[in-house]
Design brief:
Blueprint lengths: L6 E6 L5 H10 L5 E5 L11 H17 L2 E6 L2 H6 L1 H7 L4 E3 L1 H11 L4 E6 L1 H6 L1 H9 L4 E6 L2 H8 L5 H11 L9 E5 L7 H8 L4 E4 H15 L12 E5 L3 H12 L6 E3 L5
Parallel strand pairs: 1-2, 1-3, 2-9, 3-4, 5-6, 5-7, 7-8, 9-10
Bound molecules: D-glutamic acid.
Amino acid sequence: MKEEDKSIGVFDSGVGGLTVVAELIRSMPGEDIVYFGDTARVPYGTKSPETVLRFARENLDFLKKKDVKIIVIACNTASSVALPLLLVEEDIPVTGVLLPGAKAAAAATENGRITIIGTSATIRSRAYEKELYRLNGDLEIRSLPCPLFVSLAEEGWLDGEITEMVVHRYLDSLAEFGADTLVLGCTHYPLLKGVISKVVGEGVKLVDSAMETALEVQRILERNNLVRDGDDGGRFDCYVSDTPYLFKEVGERFLGRPIDRVEHQNTGD
Ligand code: DGL
């Protein structure tokens, strides 16, 4: 098979990376995509960097066996704690969601104040801060873990009184800081965009790294002459490490379209 006809490999700890897949399909409908959701081991956001790195290596090996041309780590936690090491180890292009999100935030802010929200592991790693300060040393940054947002998104509680109360509870403390830009540093958070925007006010720009990541993947493929040019592409293969049953239902909500088939697969196999 010609290199450019191979699939784009994408993994996440679970269903959240499908927000990135949705953007990849929107921007490159002719590309084949293989997705792996590590649903048996989700969440990554509460685990140690060593554990997340081990999981990420196993997921990468699984996708490489599927003969992909690029791997997208569509998980903020894995991008924060594992991507720098994986970049050194791998010989095919590997990219994550962190740098595209940081670049978009640095470009979006006008008052130089940025808030980052994500899982506990992402926030603890300070990876977003490091990247943002590298882009602009004058920025003022505050960051905050919002772990309950993951459960709300998984449960499909994307709006309503309870979700709004939880969002207030986390984000009201940041109002005084006066950031004009809020980085949604977790794959699940774009689903709560509506209620988050309502709580922080429409004047605050929400940076969704899913869209930026898709653009970055497109740039990498173009730079490496890896864009598929036939019109028979657009296949989506989906694998998960736990039972496919619930994944399909929630996944379709994340993806915004039906998923034909979800196969069970252990990364250790
Ligand atoms: N995919 C994870 C992330 O973007 C969120 C879910 C988890 O904690 O594994 O950080």
